[in-house]
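Structure Section — protein described below
Tokens — whole-number codes for backbone shape
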Amino acid sequence: MLVINVSEQRLQSIECRESAMTERRLEPRAKIFEFGTVLSDGTSGETTCVIWDASGRGARIEVEHPEKLPQRFVLDIGDRNNLKRCNVIWRIGRKVGVVFEPGSPSEGVR
């Protein structure tokens, strides 16, 4: 189980640092901070993640063991059964940037 303990001050510090980075996204991301589930092809099962922000094109997630995260997977966003096929674009520590594949949401993945 992924446990994130973030103080308000730390969260503001992270947000300030990230806003100072060069923005290259085609579509801005909205901060959503909710839990999701990474669904793999069956080799590594399901993994809980935190979705920090998302847009119609991608998301920034955090997982406990990013080294175990496959390059391609399906992300179940929240408990709404909102499935997105994802490709990993970047990895920094436990945070991972993904782009949603065209045609998401997925059907019949589970």
